[in-house]
Amino acid sequence: MSWAWFHRFGSPPYFYAVAGRLVPWLAWPAGLLILAGLYGGVVMAPPDYQQSDAARIMYVHVPAAYVGMMSYSVMALAAAIGLVWRIKVCHAVAAATAPIGAGFTAVCLVTGMLWGQPMWGTYWAWDPRLVSMLVLLFFFLGYVGLRGAIDDISRADRSSAVLAIVGFVNVPIIHFSVTWWNSIHQGPSIIRKGGPAMPASMWVPLVLVIFGFTFYFYAVMLVRARAEVLRRDRGGSWVRELLAPEENP
Amino acid sequence: MLEILDLHVWRGERHVLRGLALRLPEGQALQLLWPNGAGKTSLLRAVAGLLPLESGRILWQGEDVAADREAFSADLAFLGHELALKGDLTAAENLVYSVSLRQRIGRADVMAALDEVGLSRRADTPVRQMSAGQQRRVALARLGLWRARLWLLDEPAANLDPAGQRQVVAALERHLATGGCALISTHQPLALQPALTRLWQQPGEPA
Amino acid sequence: MLEILDLHVWRGERHVLRGLALRLPEGQALQLLWPNGAGKTSLLRAVAGLLPLESGRILWQGEDVAADREAFSADLAFLGHELALKGDLTAAENLVYSVSLRQRIGRADVMAALDEVGLSRRADTPVRQMSAGQQRRVALARLGLWRARLWLLDEPAANLDPAGQRQVVAALERHLATGGCALISTHQPLALQPALTRLWQQPGEPA
Amino acid sequence: MSDFLAMSGYAAYVWPSIGLTLALLWLNIVQARNALERAKSEARRRLSGGDDA
Amino acid sequence: MTTRASPLYAARNILRRDLTLAFRRPGEWLQPVAFFFIVTLLFPLALDPELAHLRRLAPAALWVAALLSSVLAVDFLFREDGRDGTLEQFALSGQPFAWLLLAKTVAHWLLTGLPLTLATPFAALALGAPASSVPGVLAALLLGSISLSLLGAIGAGLTLGLRRGGALLSLLVLPLAVPTLIFGARATELAIQGEPATGPMYLLAALAALGVTLAPLAAAAAVRISLE
Amino acid sequence: MTTRASPLYAARNILRRDLTLAFRRPGEWLQPVAFFFIVTLLFPLALDPELAHLRRLAPAALWVAALLSSVLAVDFLFREDGRDGTLEQFALSGQPFAWLLLAKTVAHWLLTGLPLTLATPFAALALGAPASSVPGVLAALLLGSISLSLLGAIGAGLTLGLRRGGALLSLLVLPLAVPTLIFGARATELAIQGEPATGPMYLLAALAALGVTLAPLAAAAAVRISLE
Ligand code: HEM
Ligand SMILES: Nc1ncnc2c1ncn2[C@@H]1O[C@H](COP(=O)(O)OP(=O)(O)OP(=O)(O)O)[C@@H](O)[C@H]1O
Ligand SMILES: Nc1ncnc2c1ncn2[C@@H]1O[C@H](COP(=O)(O)OP(=O)(O)OP(=O)(O)O)[C@@H](O)[C@H]1O
Ligand SMILES: [Mg+2]
Ligand SMILES: [Mg+2]
Fold first, then answer.
1. What DSSP line would sit under A78-120, residue for residue?
2. Contact by Cβ (8 Å): F151, F211
């Protein structure tokens, strides 16, 4: 395969432009999917036969969980590429991902706790799945903290990249924790042998929200990434051209 | 022979070295007399590989140093603002341990080197108990022990009294005589034989 | 006027200053050109009260400084090997905070002082991002802001380019002209007007 | 309607979860916009030679 | 002509300087808190999880965590200023040295002790303490953290300029801190059990008062010695 | 003529150097151990002492203490060598950098992890663990301390040259150390209850092996970046 596209994306101006054009195409579907999914899940779908309406938390908890984990993976991957091939754009993506991923992880934790109180009778339990997710949050925080502590941006990029890569080991642990250890948390109930463990009226909206969150994540991430690319720019002529019209309107 | 082509280096927000180029043949010492903040330290660190290059190439014996960092590192000796001495170790111990990273070494060589910088009687004092200039001299002795072809010296004469500065010059002349070369940042030109050295006053002008 | 009588100072096992005596009248600068390890730093730190005296007396305006340390400290400015600058603060902030220990100060004075050392455009750069010489210059600006009668300077010209060294000389001459006095350790004599300064080559000889 | 809001007794858990999630979605958008604006003005400042090179 | 700075003016500037420094690095001052949280989290991780069990353990966990994170933090109280010569300038400023160091210690407490105190209730709840206990826990940690910072200042002064200061520091401070720890834990325990904790509270307050008056002098003496 | 030093020769000298340095300051290397002891002793102080209660608490106390003291100690692993330019010379020595750092880490483990391990049995007994549990406890801490040192090396590399590195360091390392902590505490618990602890032991060993192979590379990358 040719690496042309790879290097094209590596060039800040190209990335900046393409990302800018991409955002609306991600944002609108995201909005629609989320609305549809939440409506389907929170309003239409029948209450769970065991958990009745408490199960509706699922429609935010699970997508948040998936996106939280996904965003860490995206961050680690981008960081690794940026570190190996010295591509600023990738570092920008990693930097843009961290705060968003931290947000989703936190939401997953809180919604999970709010779900746990009625279901398990406690907000928090020291359970592998829960703990590993908490650790994920700490990795995000550590990543942000490390960035904040370093003032030279290129050093911050590469240092935090190392951290992101090292911390990635945690992600599979989160996913398989339920199967490896006996966990009070329930195991895979959508992507599993023999199809989803719930009626279509429940898993379809869930899947819609999951996709919606994913689109949303990429939309927001790209906006932030454009900002990060600008911050990393070093007086490249393209920025001058880009901002010239806005300087004297 | 060291060759630098169109070197660009940034420090944070600041574009410090803009398309710098130089050639440094064997047996030559190039003295950078640039003003404060002009980029001497940055240049030396970039050559040593301690600062990332924004663009440009550094050739050693005609080959790009990025190709084989470790081989290049083995050929160079870097003396920066920090002396890399352990205050709790004696002068001799410091030399033994720092040199032994690169080559096998015995106490005899160390004592000889310390003698050259006039510290033979201080070989066993902890470096912490030495004055600024004495510590500089220890670092100077180490420089002589490393058998490196390329010396990168950042203000080697700082804190040294006239006698110490003469020792620097002597060490440099020995080094150049054996076909080495040196890139030196300094504010007073070192009194090397004119044949051996060039002075570079401003980063703007050509070397 | 500073007067030192029969001063003895030990550094660990070493009897560094043996019965040293000197007189430093107003408007005078005494330059210590002693060789490395002769005891310049020790002397300056002892006078400042940062090293204990084994024996001997230090008189300031005819009174023993041991009598009222704080009054004496308020009269002196000490610039050592360490610059007492915060890498994370900008040059201006560093000056404001360090000077405000001794006297009230406003941003205007600070900018003026930075201008004198040629750093006015760097007033808001964090000191960490400055080169060795630029940091020295900030320390120099601070020296000018403290209204101290007695300056104790340890190698004030280190790391400075010729322009910077001229600034040191200018600052010193302003200081001496206003009736201050200065005790300076250095390895190149500073180009002060001969009337204002004495050179002291060896601790053995009299000043 | 009211018993829909009541979530058969789980309202205290369901609605905060959903509310919090929506809040996060909103917050992310705001922050991203601000970040981009800040970066642009930063770049402008740098281009107009805020401090010397 | 220039006007001398009053001790108050000098202290105010030291305070301002240290706060500026801390806030320049976003979230840096949050780190002791984060550390504190992590430590409190470590216990349940290392234990078989039973909330009842945890609750009995809460006071110990809280106070050990608080003690450790404040010892960890106080390690930075004088270190930097000592290395870069700032403390020498303090000593030569002609201002009362102990007073300047007190200013530094206050700044340090504002940046570590106070956030720590504000953080404890959450940790306490996570460890299963009842919400009713929060005021008591807060009060205990408020008083405790003050004397911990002050004791820490002495240790920091003594270990100034030593390699590996950190570990030695903890050796020096932890014994000094034992009374605070015991009374603090006791007060917390009573608060969690919903009983009045006036007795230990008074003792904590007394310790804090004692610290404010004596610790700066001791610290000043220690730092002066370490400066040579 | 001079002969190049083999990587082994270089590593041996680094090891010798660090040991010399540590022993030059009498008892300096004892500090993490002392810290460890103090921390473990703090628990009984902060608790109402009931041995039965303490025994159930022993694994947590031991491991939290061990984790904290090794995090505290690892903060000094690279700090000094980074500040005084020694690490720059390492990087420029022409030897494989990761290998040199591994040598430093080994020295560090010998000076902190090993004494810590040897100290635990006493702490465990003090916390009411039965003598029969000593071998298990020892084994668990031996394996655990190794991976803690290695993980610490990564964090130390990342925070090298940062102000307040220490606190950030702990924030970075502790999440990495969670698995070690959990398995270690589990193994210790089983050992104290007199049951076979092979399962967690294997996992601890696996973690240690993983660390030895990967951590130095990560640390080397981190340090190189921090040197700029
Ligand atoms: C603080 C508490 C909780 C945390 C941190 C948490 C975390 C997670 C995470 C990380 C996932 C994604 C797993 C993966 O994609 O591999 C997940 C999925 C899920 N969680 Fe939770 N959870 C919590 C509480 C709960 C509770 C109380 C319930 C319901 C009783 C629940 C039900 C689910 C379900 C149904 C899934 C989807 C499983 C799948 O299809 O893979 N969670 N949770
Ligand atoms: N901390 C110390 N402990 C013991 N001896 C010391 C200590 N510091 C310096 N010395 C010794 O005291 C003597 C004087 O040291 P000092 O730093 O005053 O010399 P100096 O004149 O400043 O030299 P330089 O020009 O190199 O700065 C030296 O011989 C040195 O070895
Ligand atoms: N860490 C840093 N971050 C950002 N800018 C820096 C940093 N270090 C140095 N600079 C800037 O880079 C420029 C070159 O610095 P450098 O230290 O190379 O100068 P120099 O020639 O060595 O000066 P000196 O003679 O004073 O040592 C200076 O303007 C300085 O402000
Ligand atoms: Mg320089
Ligand atoms: Mg000196």
1. HHHHHHHHT-HHHHHHHHHHHHHHHHHHHHHHHHHHHHHHHHH
2. yes
Whether ligand 1 lies within 6 angstroms of the CB of A65 is answered as yes
Q: Are the C-beta atoms of A216 and A222 separated by less than 8 Å?
A: no
pLDDT band at E203 (very low <50, low <70, confident <90, very high): very high
From the list F39, F43, F64, F56, the residue with the least C-alpha distance to F189 is F56
> Atom of ligand 3 at shortest distance to CA of C135?
26
Q: Which of C15, C17, C40, C201 to mutate to test the pocket of ligand 2 (most atoms within 8 A of CB)?
A: C40
Q: Coil, strand, or helix at residue B10?
A: strand
Query: How far is the CA of E105 from the CAs of C88, E100, E101, E109, F210, in angstroms?
Result: 20, 9, 6, 6, 43
Reduced to 3 states, what is the DSSP secondary structure of residue C90? strand
DSSP result, C134-151: HHHHHHHHHHHHS--SEE
3-state secondary structure F169-226: HHHHHHHHHHHHHHHHHHHHHHHHCCCCCHHHHHHHHHHHHHHHHHHHHHHHHHHHHH
Contacts of A153 in chain B (CB under 8 A): 12
- Spell out where F67-206 has E strands: none
Pairing of strands B181-185, B150-154: parallel
Torsion sign, CA atoms F14, F16, F19, F20: negative
Rounded to 10 degrees, the C-alpha dihedral E190/E195/E199/E204 comes to 40
End-to-end CA, chain A: 44
- CB of A136 shorter than 6 A to ligand 1: no
Q: Which atom of ligand 2 is nearest to the CA of C45?
A: 18
User: Tens digit of pLDDT for each residue in E50-100?
Assistant: 555 667 777 888 888 888 888 878 878 888 888 888 999 999 888 999 999
Q: How far is CA E16 from CA C98, C165, E22, E107, E150, in A?
A: 12, 33, 10, 8, 19
Mean pLDDT of D34-38: 94
Residue of chain A whose alpha carbon sits nearest to that of C128: A151
Query: Are F75 and E166 contacting, i.e. CB atoms less than 8 angstroms apart?
Result: yes
DSSP state of E47: S
Neighbours of D51 (CB within 10 A): 13
Cα separation, E32 vs D14, whole angstroms: 34
Q: How confident is the model over A102-154, as pLDDT tens digits?
A: 999 999 999 999 998 888 887 777 788 888 999 999 999 899 988 988 878 88
Closest approach of E109 to chain C, Cα-based (Å): 20
- What's the CA gap between C145 and C32, in Å, rounded? 24
Average pLDDT over residues E122-143: 87
Report how far residue F4's alpha carbon sits from residue F10's, in angstroms, rounded to the nearest whole number. Answer: 10
CA distance F12 to C134: 41
pLDDT for F145-163, tens place per residue?
999 999 999 999 999 878 6
Yes or no, beta carbons of E57 and F59 under 8 Å apart: no
Cβ contact, residue pair D52, C125, below 8 Å: no
Q: Which of E204, E196, E220, E65 is nearest to E127 (CA)?
A: E65
- Stated as kind and residue range, the H or E segment containing C14 is strand C14-24
- Least Cα distance to B141 among B167, B159, B161 occurs for B167
* Contact call for E and D: 3+ CB–CB distances under 8 Å: no
- Residue F47 banded pLDDT, cuts 50, 70, 90: low
Could you state, in chain order, the average pLDDT of each consecutive group of 10 residues for chain A (249 residues)?
Answer: 65 91 95 94 80 86 96 96 91 96 96 89 80 92 88 89 93 86 76 76 91 97 95 78 61
* Beta bridge partners of residue C57, listed in sequence order: C5
A115 lines ligand 1 (CB under 6 A): yes
Give residue B130 CA to ligand 2 midpoint distance, Å: 5
Protein residue whose Cα sits closest to atom 2 of ligand 2: B129
User: Is residue B33 within 6 Å of ligand 3 at its C-beta?
Assistant: no
